[in-house]
Amino acid sequence: MDFLLTSILDGLLLGFVYGLAAMGLTLIWGVMNVINLSHGPIISLGMFGVYLLFSGLGINPYVALIFVAIFGLLLGIVIYFVAVNRVINAPHLSTLLATFSVAMIITGLGTAVFSASPRNVDYSLGSFTLGSATIPINRIVAAALSMLITAGLYIYLRRTRSGRYIRAVANNRNAAELMGVPSVRILALSFGIGTMLATVAGGLIATLFPFTILAGGTYELKSFVIGVLGGLGNPVGALLGGLILGVLEGIIPTFMPATWVPVIEFILFVLILMVRPQGLFGAKKS
Amino acid sequence: MSSPNDTQLAATDTKTGLSAVLAQNAGSFVGLILPVAIILALTIWPTITGKDITRESIFTIMLSIALASSLNILLGYTGYVSFGHVVFFGLGGYVGFYLMAVQGWSLWLAMPMGGLAAGLLAFLLGKAILRLRGGYFALATIGVNEAMRAFINNFKPFGGPVGMTLNFQVYKDYGGAARALSLAFYILAALTLLIVIISYLVRTSKFGLGLLAIREDEDAAEVMGVVAPSAKTWAYVLSAILPGIIGVLFFFKNGSIEPVPAFRLNFSIEMIVMVMLGGQGTVLGPIIGGVGYQSLRGFLLTSPLFKNIQLAVAGALLLVIVLFVPAGLVGWLRNRFPALRRVLQ
Amino acid sequence: MKRTIILSLFLILALALAACGGGTTAEPAAQPAANDAAAPAADQPADTEAAAPAATTETMVIGFTASQTGSQNVASTGQVNGLNLWKDTVNAAGGIELPNGTKVMVEFVSYDDESNTDRVQELYTRLATEDNANFLISPYSSGLTAAAAVIAEQYGKVMITTGAASDDTYKQGLTMVYQAYTPASRYLTGAVDLLEHVDANAKNIAFVYENSKFSTDVVEAARQYAEGKGYNVVLAEGYDPETTDFGPFINKIQDAKPDAIMGGGHFQDGSTFARQLNEKNIGVSFFALLVAPPEPDFADLGEAAVGVVGPSQWELQAAFTPESATAAGLDWYGLLGEEFVQGYEAKYDGTEPSYHAAGGYAAGLILEKAIIDAGSTDPDAVRQALEAMNLLTFFGHIQFDTTAEAHGLQTGHSMVYIQWQKDASGNLVKEVVWPLEGATAETLYPAP
Hints:
Chain A is mainly α. In chain A, 74% of the residues lie in helices and 3% in strands. By secondary structure, chain B is an all-alpha fold.
């Protein structure tokens, strides 16, 4: 049963990254009730950002993340003003389709520029062995960075003025506006931060696995599952959701064919939506 | 619907809906004229041109019209955004294909079974996930589609990942491949006509009025005496059956079926786009949307200027429509020219 | 203001619709623009008339769809590049010369199928009826090809398939479809032979593969073959095409203690799998993967690529020559592998051709030879020539199954197996290791 432990460890480490990937999605949902369907392509952009900086300019992938984060923040603010702001109060369908259009634009341009050809960031920190388990160090670094970023986000939301504004807008936009919170700017900032988290997660994933311009789609679907597990709108819940998903992906293949993993994931997803739409750790939100 | 235009539109919807119900015996089917005329024109067009390619192109368009019109019953009338509607197309297709390829059934029997399977799934799902509102429902439908795809990928009787293939000899029973392809077209035309008529009848019936009330304000609708859970479920079932039947027809014509093309999430989203483009909640909207969307895609795909970035161009166009014309073409015309409302249902 | 915007929007839409002629949805791709060799094609008739007044020049149209967008974009592009190179070569030589002196120029019509089946039948119908294609070439991938085959059959058009390996398609009673690739059922069997050759003591094989049509077909056949040879299959399991993390899976493989791992799927999962196997360092001596290893980009993996074996439809190093044809008692036709690579690199800015590109060129070459043998572009005559074809080309041996059960299935061609190794200066190189007749290096065994 050695391999069970190894698999759990593998899954846990990856779970942090999954959690980070979902955090942007769930933040945007929590603040403005928008399901961001351009989440996947944005993750892909993060991957390509790190890849281009690393392969083209020889910048260390972890340093490249800083540039990718800045790019993500700006991109998010632009997307917000171009595609979301106008329909922020319209029914769900409008924001779903608006963000989906953005996804089409990014994927379309991305395929034209990069083609659907797979890329790999050939940067390995080696691995170390713990009993029978061999753990790549890239994975440990990715997990540690994900934790760090989550902690940073948490502190930001609690301790800074704009962070508090974001929470105020998430709680009750009208009330926040009455209190003098510049809600449009805060919404744009939240969208920017959500996008930034997605690109950074993409960048971290790029240090672990090969990817294509279409690869973000897989993480988008995972992010939905994680978001629902942890409670949509709850960034810290997303990290826990990510860990749960990571561990599930680690454990399930040890006792049944690995191809059943997505079946179980998505059934679980639908069941949780039905039974506890606020998520396993989410507070009830009307 | 919260923007002022939409609310105004909805109010008049209810009014015309009411008057239509009142005037039903007087044979007020004015609103049906245009939709039926378009479908009939599309049906006979290949005979006029005498070209197979016209038939094939119109097959793609009709497929879109029929699926978009089906989805519209849920999306447009009831206001529930089903992002994974392709699950009914895929499941129906799989059940029917299995019956034809493995059990040797004829297309005529396989099609209703595909529809039945889809309807049954919708009924069960309706009981389970239609309680969810807004974005949660949309997410759940995505989950259902992905779960189904992953399940079929593991389900050996349906061939698992390999899928199933129809022996070419099967087409001989229908007078050879050429006859089978043209037969498939006329069946699809009949089904499209059927769904358009159903769509019209629903819209002008008391049942449809209940659905519209749910769309505007579900809680208020319940207070007014609409049994929302059952009304929603039946709308869901109604919107699922036809995609199930059409799935069988499509994969019969295609000759093979595999999990990925059968449950392609993007296909679902395309259906929504068509409904939006033409105008959600109208009978004519999905028809216009289907014709418009497919023509536009066809144009972008083959235009030398756009073909490399066609996806991005389509996305940009969609964005502009979502942002500036949320009611779609038919909705916009109805708002702009109230006099046309009887004709533009 | 808003109203004007909206009005102009609908106007644009209406224009777009009008441009598509209302009912029809796809316009032919701008043919002249796609025709790189338009200039020589236009000049040629005059030249030939001057040189040999008796000879006439015909033009034949070949139709196909390409996945310019979507997931199959990479392989499909290679295939289309190969086809275009073939067309240019033929047209630069003044066309295909028939025994009666007639010259046949080649013209292509192609559309984007977006890597999905929705429009494949519509587009192939357009090719067959509107564009009057004389012959068809398949799209890339078995799924799309199955849909296109229905149309080829209906309109009695000969279709050469390339990049469509599944055996299934050819067992459905088709009569017009001919396969250039080695079918899926023989994709990995050579890897089993290679394992037997390098290590007589290896007994346990783990098959792990992408849960998709192609890989499942390949692995089912290889597994039966391995079991027939007395190997123990200690693990045979698929993974979902969306799998990103192979960690748990690799742990499971490790637990099964195989001597060899075989399987894989497509490029992305294959390279991920290879990279993680290397990171996990589980000490399996033999590792054969589908599709990904022969691609030149596989070298991006660096160390993780070393030792990985992969089946390939074609490699330059496995040189087929007129001499080897004579030795095997076969006819030789067409250019040499080196000439293909030179032509390809010259045309595509030094890009190294993948086997998909070679497959595309070979599809054209097969058609060319069949037309010459038939002495015309008459579909029936060409069919008969294809039925009788038994020949060696730069791509390998080409022969088709002519029985009713598996008509058109490729029976002559077989895979070569490459392995990534390091040369003396430490650079990654692709060496052919199997079959031994074509091998350029000893198999690196056990793999690091």
